[in-house]
Specification:
With 141 residues, this protein is mostly helical. The protein is 67% helix and 0% strand. It is built from 5 helices and no strands. It is flat, with a radius of gyration of 22 Å. The N and C termini lie far apart (81 Å).
Length: 141
């Protein structure tokens, strides 16, 4: 008589390990493509995924009632994506990249003008202004 052994399946564990490995390879490729350190690329990736939530919510809310719903959702996504890219701007906009990764306490890095606060506000407000303009435009027609 043969005995059956009830071995638990390792399938879910293998799927999780492969998923984590695939995510690591994707973030590593993203970091290499954009010239970012891995931690910044991971933060930008997570923030970009989170940026889809408000855009999807706006698109869902306006789907039946607004003829420009897709473009408004794209503008909201662009605004949220600009916030997601702020850590990458901190890396890209360093005026003297030789000292950018030294991380000396008390040493502040000088940013280019396009990485400063006013430019970031523009990157955020320009797509939102487009979304509001499209929303208001449809209310008059």
């Amino acid at each position: 008589m043969s005995q059956r052994h009830n071995n638990p399946s390792n399938g879910p564990l293998i799927v999780v390990i492969l998923g984590v490995a695939l995510l690591f390879v994707a973030i590593k490729g993203f970091a290499d493509m954009l010239g970012l350190p891995m931690n910044v690329a991971a933060e930008v990736s997570i923030r970009s995924a989170v940026a889809l939530v408000p855009a999807a919510a706006v698109g869902w809310a306006l789907f039946d009632s607004h003829r420009h719903w897709l473009w408004i959702a794209v503008c909201v996504f662009a605004a949220c994506l600009s916030i997601a890219l702020w850590p990458a701007l901190d890396v890209w906009a360093v005026a003297d990249p030789v000292y950018a990764f030294l991380d000396v306490p008390g040493m502040e890095q000088e940013l280019q003008f396009w990485g400063g606060g006013w430019a970031r506000a523009f990157y955020l407000l320009a797509p939102l202004a487009g979304a509001v303009g499209l929303f208001v435009r449809n209310q008059h027609y």
